[in-house]
Amino acid sequence: MDWNFEYGELAKDKEFVNKYESLKENLIELQKVLEKLLPLKAQYDKMCLPAQIELDLFLAFTLNSLHWVQLRVEGVDPTTHPIKDELQRIKTVMMKWQEVKDKEKRPTVDVEAAKRFVRSGLYDPYRAIGQPANKKIKFKEDDE
């Protein structure tokens, strides 16, 4: 794509030119990234599941973000467009995926050791005086 545009009369508007140049640089950088990632779709079936998920999320978010930018350039308010809900849905899925990935890094609890700590930490007053926890049960000594 030819990124060289002549501004004509708009060349006098420095704010417009600066915004356009910034947008152009970001789009060129995005194009380079996509040119590297899109060939991966040919090897998609050979990729491991986490890599497939991350590629899908990245491409979905990128394409929807580009649609958002397109709407802004056309003068349409994207906050009232369904694309806002789609981007929010993708962000939610990305956060869930991040939680799944972080779950592997979390420390695990030794359940049996925790049970022993809790059991030994609880004070049982009936054990100390030799009476059963259920007061209706009587010792044989009390029957006499």
From TrEMBL:
The molecular function terms in GO held by this entry are: DNA binding; RNA binding
Q: Name one GO cellular component term.
A: exosome (RNase complex)
Where this protein primarily resides, as one coarse class? cytoplasm
The answer to whether keyword Iron-sulfur applies is: no
**Keyword annotations:** Cytoplasm, DNA-binding, Nucleus, RNA-binding, rRNA processing
- Where is it localised? Cytoplasm; Nucleus, Nucleolus; Nucleus
- Which example biological process does GO assign this protein? maturation of 5.8S rRNA
List the Pfam families.
Answer: Sas10_Utp3 (PF04000)
Q: Does the keyword GTP-binding apply?
A: no
Q: Assembly state and interactors?
A: Monomer and homodimer.
Family that this chain belongs to: Belongs to the C1D family.
Role description: Plays a role in the recruitment of the exosome to pre-rRNA to mediate the 3'-5' end processing of the 5.8S rRNA.
Q: What name goes with this protein?
A: Nuclear nucleic acid-binding protein C1D
Q: Which organism is it from?
A: Euphydryas editha (Edith's checkerspot)
Traced from the root, the source organism's taxonomic lineage reads:
Eukaryota, Metazoa, Ecdysozoa, Arthropoda, Hexapoda
